[in-house]
Amino acid sequence: MAHVQSDTTPAVPSPTESTPESGLDLRNIQGDILSGMPKKTETFYFFQIADGPTFRQHFRSFVPLVKTVAQALADRDAIDKHKKKDEGHGHKPHVIPMVGVNVSFSHFGFQKLGIDDSKLIDPGYLGGQRRDAQSLGDKGTGDGETFVPDWDEGFKQEIHGVFIVSGDSHPTVDRKIQDIEKLFKIGTKAASYKKIVSIQGDVRPGEQSAHEHFGYLDGVSNPAIIGFDKNPPPGPAPVRAGAILLGHDGDENKDGRDPWMTDGSFLAFRHLLQNVPEFDEFVNKNRLQLPGMTEKEGADLFGARLVGRWKSGAPVDLAPFFDDPDLAKDPLRNNNFHFSAERNFQKLCPFAAHVRKTNPRADLEELGISIERNRIIRRGIQFGPEVTRAERQQKKTLHRRGLLFACYQSSLTNGFQFIQKSWANNRNFPLEQTPETPGVDPIIGQVNGLADRGVISGTNPNNPATTTSLPDVWVIPRGGEYFFTPSIKALRENISA
To answer: What is the pLDDT of residues 259-317, one digit of tens each?
Structure first.
């Protein structure tokens, strides 16, 4: 699901360092893409452009606020030095003030600005996510061109762009948003855009930091980028920069791009609610009853087999029956698995498990099928309060919480869309070698917006053919859009007036 920076992040270049051997200029790439902007909180601020020429004039004053990869890396260095200094004096590290801003545009936004983005080519981007919602499996009414997704009203409007503002605290982020609004004269007759909706996300507190709301450690398996990540830990093969950035080796449409598109990346955003009490109750009711295992251990194992990792982050492929927190904390081991010993059986990890569905590793690679083109970098964050006592007692969601899912790729068709439609929603994937029908991804898989998603196999390691019904959905889309995140040069020379 979402990516939250953790201690498993590979080593990256120093802040002032470019990587000429790979053609990467870290000062030209927006900071959230390759390194992620450091954050305790983050606001996604969606807008609709009111007047194109005026917006482009205002935008020129905005561009200096945009944080680059080089600057984001400098922020991370500052955090590390500050943390070591505090620890060296025997103090508990405290958060230092920090803020980052990025910006992305939808196809409709570029149309409003009079910018020709046709050579971005990607059909999903050009059509928009609202048009794509039915094929993603989102719930809604109507069919085809008349389909209306069951989304929050703000996302049913035409969205032209999004400001992503991350930082150490709500006041820091809120002040930066106020600065942005002043530049675009929001609240006056000269305003050049209209705010559609803004959503605030927060890293979860205490020991749940870096865990999504169901409780599972997240963001462990983002791909390492050749020419950017230094000495990545063992695991899936690093990918070429063009799998994420346009105009680089690995971008399948590299030769067809306009020059201003180089160093940009497509952003897929999804506003996802999570029904945590209902999920927990499902896991508890279906807990495994294996010899010598307590009820809690049986429930923990069942949940881990749905996700493919224990809540600690330990992969079930390497810790199939009991959690292994030491394994989870070890970056040299916690992503170093490939499903290669179990391509035709699922005693260790179910075929339908979320991490196997969304990154099948040897299930395809040992068939000679590269999955480099399908890799994405996730940069989301959780939102909403912790589950309350009343919700636990009633076993019912009473407050909105979930995930602000965001991911980057050089092709939405091969990246987010393919993962959701062809893998997560496909009850027959992985193909060919599976003796049992896997079923859909129990976490994010969708079946035409229906609550009943059929059955999955593999939840019981002692009898993988046993099936479990999925009578409900626990991750519910409430909106989204596809964007393009341009380079700093493009922001300055092609979008600014």
So the answer is: 999 999 999 999 999 999 999 999 999 999 999 999 999 999 999 999 999 999 999 99
What string of DSSP letters covers 423-486? IIT-TTPSPSS-SS---S-TTT--STT-S---EEE-SSTT-TT-EEE--S-SEEEEEEEEEEE-
List the alpha helices (DSSP H) in 309-388.
325-329, 354-358, 362-365
pTM metric for this prediction: 0.95
Residue 347's pLDDT band, with cuts at 50, 70 and 90, is: very high
Instruction: Report d(CA 384, CA 84) in Å as an integer.
Output: 31
Query: How many CB atoms are closer than 10 A to CB 142?
Result: 10
Q: Which helix (H) or strand (E) holds 165?
A: strand 161-167
Q: Please choose, from the candidates 163, 187, 175, the residue with its C-alpha nearest in 3D space to the C-alpha of residue 63.
A: 163
Question: What are the tokens at 219?
Answer: 């963001």
Closest CA to 151 of 248, 261, 269: 269
Distances (CA, A) of 59 to 55, 56, 140, 159: 6, 5, 36, 17
- Please name every residue paired with 468 in a beta bridge, in sequence order, or none if there are none: 456
Asked if residue 245 has pLDDT above 60, the reply is yes
- CB 141 within 8 Å of CB 150: yes
- Decide: 205 and 51 in contact? Cβ < 8 Å: no
Q: Which of 218, 251, 280, 363 is catalytic?
A: 218
Peptide bond into 486 cis (omega under 30): no
Which stretches of 308-437 are DSSP H helices?
A: 325-329, 354-358, 362-365, 389-394, 416-418
Angle, vertex CA 346, rays to CA 341 and CA 348, nearest 5: 70
Query: Is residue 218 among the annotated active site residues?
Result: yes
Distances (CA, A) of 327 to 215, 307, 332, 353: 17, 17, 9, 19
The string of pLDDT tens digits covering residues 8-30 is: 344 545 444 555 455 799 999 99
What six digits make up the tokens of 447?
């079946």
